[in-house]
UniProtKB/TrEMBL annotation:
Pfam families: Peripla_BP_2. Residues 50-308 form the Fe/B12 periplasmic-binding domain. This is Periplasmic binding protein. InterPro entries: ABC_Transporter_SBP, ABC_transptr_periplasmic_BD. It comes from Hyphomicrobium denitrificans (strain ATCC 51888 / DSM 1869 / NCIMB 11706 / TK 0415).
Length: 347
């Protein structure tokens, strides 16, 4: 039998031990674990400087804006979200325009992801996480099912970016704004709460279930609030006539004139009293899920109950929010453009 030199064997064992130690300890220095909203432990770099957003990009971007990290977004908006409708995304993050597109439709563009080279990708789509696995780019799953989930998302991003202060500030603002409105609206009787329809006039749908929440919080009664599980609610002109809403909020400014011009709706209370309005549009549509949701409630409360909220200077509220959370100073014209829904009007 051939025996190896004990000294050589000792050196080989020592070298193997060192190699194993290095390969098992390097990750602890290179990264850390973050638990996403699917309960997955995801290893991410210690410092996040570039983040990708795939899925409902404007919503995801708005979270990153509010945490104070707009400059970290590594991708542009998808091609189907171009044009002036999304202008305030670029007001908050001008650099987006020069970034690569990393999704087509609702799925990731792998070549774009590689070009953007994000430290981590944020998504609300589990299939995207599976598709990104082969790029070795970590992906965090975010979820927004209940209104308060926005605070959970912000705290997760606070952990990701090391911006716990910003997450805490947002949560405090959210809660204080809800309490501020509730202190006046919660005591209203049903007959003091206007019947409200939030609608995409062209498709005759109430497009997002969360509208049932913000309408109620603002002191209104949503005519489409039927306890449904699904997002959208479809209806007919005949149903609008039966509901006879006292306030109609449409999804684009252009549809205000369309509603007023629809002879079938001439006898609807909101039309007769000229109470048809467009939902505001900032970095996202305020009627949908957006980090601007507290502003939605405050705006709607003043709209439904102008006397009760006469002291609320909503333009100032918008400008302060953008300054405090998005780090952008809006002009009064900018705030008016947001509040009138003009940013979301088609050209």
């Amino acid at each position: 039998m051939h025996l190896r030199c004990p000294g050589v064997l000792h050196l080989r064992v020592l070298w193997l031990a060192i190699l194993l130690a290095v390969t098992t300890t390097v990750p602890s220095f290179a990264g850390r674990l973050v638990t996403d909203m699917a309960g997955r432990s995801v290893e991410v770099p210690d410092k996040i400087t570039r983040v990708g957003t795939i899925g409902p990009v404007p919503v995801l971007n708005s979270f990153v804006f509010a945490i104070g990290e707009a400059g970290s977004i590594a991708n542009n908006l998808p091609p189907n979200l171009g044009g002036p409708r999304w202008r305030f995304q670029y007001v908050v993050a001008p650099g987006l325009a020069s970034r690569p597109v990393i999704q087509t439709g609702q799925g990731p563009n792998i070549e774009g992801v590689i070009e953007a080279s994000p430290d981590v990708v944020l998504t609300m789509d589990r299939a995207t996480i599976d598709q990104l696995a082969r790029t070795h780019v970590p992906a965090l799953y975010l979820s927004w099912q209940k209104p308060d989930d926005v605070k959970s998302v912000m705290h997760l991003l606070g952990e990701l970016f090391g911006r716990h202060d910003a997450a805490d500030a947002y949560s405090k603002y959210f809660d204080q704004t809800m309490k501020r409105v509730a202190s006046r609206a919660d005591g209203l009787r049903d007959d003091q709460r206007p019947r409200v329809l939030y609608a995409n006039y062209r498709s005759l749908t109430q497009p997002h279930k969360i509208a049932e929440w913000w309408i109620a919080k603002a002191g209104g009664r949503s005519v489409t609030d039927d306890g449904r599980i699904g997002e959208a609610f479809n209806f007919s002109i005949e149903q609008i006539l039966a509901w006879d809403p006292e306030v109609i909020i449409v999804t684009t400014e252009n549809d205000i004139s369309n509603v007023y011009g629809d002879a079938r709706l001439a006898n609807v209370s909101a039309v007769k009293t000229k109470r048809v309005f467009a939902i505001p549009m900032g970095v996202h549509v305020w009627g949908n899920r957006t980090v601007e949701q507290p502003l939605t409630v405050l705006w709607a409360a003043k709209l439904f109950h102008p006397d009760l909220f006469a002291d609320v200077a909503i333009e100032d509220e918008v400008r302060n929010f953008y300054s405090n959370f998005f780090k952008v100073d809006l002009s009064r014209d900018d705030a008016e453009t947001i509040l009138t829904g003009r940013a979301g009007a088609s050209k």
